[in-house]
Amino acid sequence: MTSSIASFADWMKQVQSTMEEALGASLPSDATVPARLHEAMRYAVLNGGKRVRPLLVFAAGDLFDADAASLQRAAAALEMIHAYSLVHDDMPCMDDDALRRGKPTVHVKYDEATALLVGDALQSQAFVVLSEGVAEGEGQATRRLAMLRLLAQASGSAGMCGGQAIDLASIGLALSLGELEHMHQLKTGALLRASVLLGALAGKTLSDAEIAALDAYSVAIGLAFQVVDDVLDATADSATLGKTAGKDAADNKPTYVSILGLAESKALADKLRDDAHRALMPFGEKARRLREIADLIVQRKA
Amino acid sequence: MTSSIASFADWMKQVQSTMEEALGASLPSDATVPARLHEAMRYAVLNGGKRVRPLLVFAAGDLFDADAASLQRAAAALEMIHAYSLVHDDMPCMDDDALRRGKPTVHVKYDEATALLVGDALQSQAFVVLSEGVAEGEGQATRRLAMLRLLAQASGSAGMCGGQAIDLASIGLALSLGELEHMHQLKTGALLRASVLLGALAGKTLSDAEIAALDAYSVAIGLAFQVVDDVLDATADSATLGKTAGKDAADNKPTYVSILGLAESKALADKLRDDAHRALMPFGEKARRLREIADLIVQRKA
């Protein structure tokens, strides 16, 4: 058990270091005009975050032995979409946050106009990266197109942006548990699901049964991720989190903790981890990393 | 000559009306949750604009007899990227404009957070639309991937967003003519070039010579478009333009008129139209609509 946990930690470190390099190479150099925009794009993406989405991409890639180059592209694209959403989400007209990953947010370090353009350009760059480097053969191109379509759908108004719109509209409202789950399934769940599916799709075209199993896993870890976020927001301090703690309560935003209470929220997170494990059963030993990520999401302290 | 001009006007009206329908069908319904976001996305895209980019897509599609469905997708994607850039560009932290196409801008009619999300979601939706509906058959998927890559590159920091960053950084500076042209080639030229290339690519894979000819045409009309914009900004009134006139001068932004003067700017626009016509010579009669668009860009009054 100890050796298995150690090996997951090593695997995670290796993916994170691979991705730091891949992201650095996928972003325009800060010596290229417009230099300030490029510097700010790199600031927003590099040296930060747990890289949960890339970890999911690589873990799902194990299922069907996907090649490393395709996985790196998918993971870089997803991380750019995620980073852009954080930059825009932190802006004064949205959450108005000054601290992210323990550093000043982009609009604080640069300015609002730059933050707006950084987010816009990072979204474009995600699609640049994912549309490049397709191996010869119409089958490869068809699979890559499916990956691009999934990423775009998960990012837009039927996914992440839609969830943020619902989140904005819900401040001060007493959401039901079902409404809260729907919001999070769009706001964070859609991109986590896309990470799992893109990683698997980098290996082969998926059957309906495979998609259904991966969807069940994704829904479970997506909700678990949010439940744990709410628990940490209510219990941890800003220094540990690397962002302003207790902000949701201060903003009067509905959370799992405010609806279910702390103990029941923790119990829900454990149940969702079990759901995630169960969904992976058809994939056997090859789903090991996906199982370990579900554990990580529930056990994390920041 | 009169009948040729009349027939161009008819063709233009037909493309515009086709695109109004195609855009309406390509955007989520405002009855779908999140309804306010979807309503605002439709407000930003529908019933407005000259649809210059779709006109270029359809005109370039004529060169190689591209099918109408592919052209509609490409044109809708380009128009969504264009519309999102206007929404973000109008926001208080950028140009802070209250009027666009004779109507209140999105952040005025809705709010800033919604305007931010409208732009973000429209960019995603552009890639959704362009990644869907690929026909079976050798080369179709590969060609569509090339179109997606071009659109993403033209939208990001090497294209439109990069041009906006340079534009922002140049307020109050005395740009040289070369620096001004570089800024506009990125800010508006990149998307016009993508319109021409996507329309042509919807018909067939392009040779290097064909790309070079279409690039020469695109550079000429892109600069002509901007020169005429500057002339109109200096000479027309807000009611005719449907946006705030004289704003560039008030903001102390460098323009062709401020650098070259009015008469020389008008002469430059005429020269650029001739350049555009010359670049199209290899395509013969099939380039008729592209020629007429160059004329339209230089002769327009708003």
Automatic annotation (TrEMBL), chains A, B:
GO terms for biological process: terpenoid biosynthetic process. It comes from the Bacteria. InterPro entries: Isoprenoid_synthase_dom_sf, Polyprenyl_synt, Polyprenyl_synt_CS, Prenyl_diphosphate_synthase. The keyword Transferase applies. GO terms for cellular component: cytoplasm. The keyword Metal-binding applies. One of its GO terms (molecular function) is metal ion binding. Its cofactor is Mg(2+). Keywords: Isoprene biosynthesis, Magnesium, Metal-binding, Transferase. Belongs to the FPP/GGPP synthase family. This is Geranyl transferase. The lineage of its organism: Bacteria, Pseudomonadati, Pseudomonadota, Betaproteobacteria, Burkholderiales.
